[in-house]
Design a protein that fits this description.
34% helix; 7-stranded mixed sheet; 18% strand; 205 residues
Length: 205
């Protein structure tokens, strides 16, 4: 939790409380439905919360904008971003029902009013959004066709509407098909060793 405050010192008391209770909520739910690996739960704030918030180092979502988190799993990056941007609406979707059940319960426990959790595939989502966010669900060539038709053409943020994808490793080969992609290394923003090879990929659409 101290890491979150180090990198995001402007959090309100309410936001601090929501981030603080996240770990115990996930540990409790993880015993019933495994949404986070046993190895990673011990590095919860670094590998899940702070990693998700890496997107917020690239962009500050505007009030009333709409964000789609595809393949949210247990709620990442959507739930940490929804805490950070309470006036932005987040759609968290996953094709696995039990994971969405965990998301719904955690959203309820946190009192988040800006999250809609849906048990659907990306292809079934019919709303228009400003950005699609995700954490390494699949390769870009597979992912982009799932979502490119769902992104509004009316850009109002500091960067063009599109995909913000959290991914690790060498992405040069994977991004050959996407010459407009912008790569933002998270090691620029977070000093922890975990982020040395982690990036946010922005693909404007």
């Amino acid at each position: 939790m101290e890491e979150i405050l180090t990198y995001f010192p402007e959090l309100s008391e309410k936001q601090q409380h929501q981030f603080k209770v996240l770990e115990s909520l996930y540990k409790e739910w993880n015993q019933k439905i495994n949404v986070i690996s046993r190895k990673d739960i011990n590095h919860f704030y670094e590998r899940h919360v702070l990693h998700s918030l890496g997107i917020a180092k690239i962009i500050s979502f505007l009030p009333e904008s709409k964000i789609l988190d595809v393949g949210t799993g247990g709620g990442f990056p959507g739930i940490p971003l929804a805490i950070l941007f309470p006036n932005t609406h987040f759609y968290l979707i996953d094709s696995i029902g039990k994971k969405i059940k965990v998301v719904e319960e955690i959203v309820l426990s946190l009192g988040l009013k800006n999250v809609t959790a849906l048990h659907i595939r990306a292809e079934e989502f019919s709303n228009s959004v400003d950005f699609v966010v995700s954490r390494a669900v699949t390769r870009m060539v597979t992912f982009v066709p799932w979502v490119e038709g769902k992104i509004s053409k009316n850009s109002k943020h500091s960067i063009k509407n599109g995909i913000l994808y959290l991914k690790g490793g060498d992405l040069s080969e994977e991004l050959i098909s996407f010459p407009k992609a912008n790569l933002h290394s998270l090691s620029k923003y977070f000093k922890n060793y975990f982020f040395e090879t982690k990036s946010v990929v922005h693909i404007p659409l």
